[in-house]
Design brief:
about 170 residues, actin filament binding, Calponin-homology (CH) domain-containing protein, single chain, Actin-binding Protein, T-fimbrin, domain 1, mainly alpha, Calponin_repeat
């Protein structure tokens, strides 16, 4: 099972989902509660109403997996980066539940960036953009300085090293 599971984080995510939905979740492990995608679709519809139009409450595995795919599409539109979204099989086939939990944690974090969402949030507050503007004079003031990231080596060189393959003489 890839990814070490963090039970405290799973509990925190489940509590956040319960708070957002405003109703208790069915008992059980997180993978059992979320597996059919119904809770996930209801969750994104609370955060962004109308995100998922069709939710299959019962049906074949394929139909239930479509719920998860609709949820994934909706959270991508909501602003979650593609690389933070779990794969359908991670949840449905219980392959990587820790990735599912991290995706939901990220969703809770992204919800803070949406001013229309005033409900419960998850995780630390996200930083706001902090743009700085410099005058032309301030920018020019740094031009004469040697940037240490550019490989300034205070006169050290490889002279006297000999050649490739030689041992270093001390």
């Amino acid at each position: 099972m890839p990814g070490k599971r963090d039970k405290a984080l799973e509990e925190e995510v489940l509590n956040w989902i319960k708070d957002v939905l405003g109703e208790p979740l069915p008992p059980g492990q997180i993978e059992d509660i979320l597996r059919d995608g119904v809770v996930l679709c209801n969750l994104i519809n609370k955060l962004a109403p109308g995100s998922v139009k069709k939710i299959q409450a019962k049906g074949t595995n394929f139909q239930l997996m479509e719920n998860i795919q609709r949820f994934q599409s909706a959270i991508k539109n909501y602003g979650l980066p593609q690389e933070e979204i779990f794969q359908t099989a991670d949840l449905f086939e219980r392959r990587n539940i820790s990735q599912v939990v991290l995706s939901l944690y990220s969703l809770g974090r992204i919800a803070q960036k949406h001013p229309e969402w005033t409900g419960p949030t998850l995780g630390p507050k996200m930083a706001d953009k902090n743009e700085r503007t410099f005058t032309e004079e301030q920018l020019r003031a740094s031009e004469g300085q040697v940037n240490l990231q550019m490989g300034y080596n205070k006169g050290a060189s490889q002279s006297g090293h000999g050649g490739m393959g030689n041992t270093r003489h001390m």
